[in-house]
Amino acid sequence: MDWKLELVLLPVTDVDRARTFYAEQLGFRLDVDHHASEAFRVVQLTPPGSACSISFGVGVSSAAPGSVQGLHLVVTDIEAAREQLLGKRVEVSEIFHFAQGQRAPGPDPERRNYYSYFSLNDPDGNGWLVQEVGYQPASTAARPTEHQP
Fold first, then answer.
1. CATH code of residue 86
2. Of 31, 37, 45, 64, which residue is the least packed, with the fewest Cβ within 10 Å?
3. pLDDT digits (tens, 9 = 90+) for 13-67
4. Which residues, in sequence order, are CB contacts of 129 under 8 Å at separation 6+?
């Protein structure tokens, strides 16, 4: 039997501000924005390529805004992902990895799966880690051989 995580609730103070951040700055797909009444609104968004969505709104969670920490987004190129978010004016940490049990600057020198990270927070302080898995260096184009007469 499969047990699939499909939705994570995020507590936020301003639904429209959170919607703008996740949809426009992080590039999540807007799935639902249902406003049944002043006491109930639910917004659901999904990260590109993910089977799990996030949801927030009015009347959907009693948790304190900003209290969700440690959510992970996985990307194949940590440097490109960071640059993309910086281009959309998202505040992100520097890239880091762990070496000999200590946090060290930059991506993992061997670009091993699950070793390189950066962090970010949404406008309410809910915390995310972006983690690199499946990095493939750009292949160098084969140089044409010189023609010898």
1. 3.10.180.10
2. 37
3. 999 999 999 999 999 999 999 999 999 999 999 999 999 999 999 999 999 999 9
4. 70, 71, 72, 73, 117, 118, 119
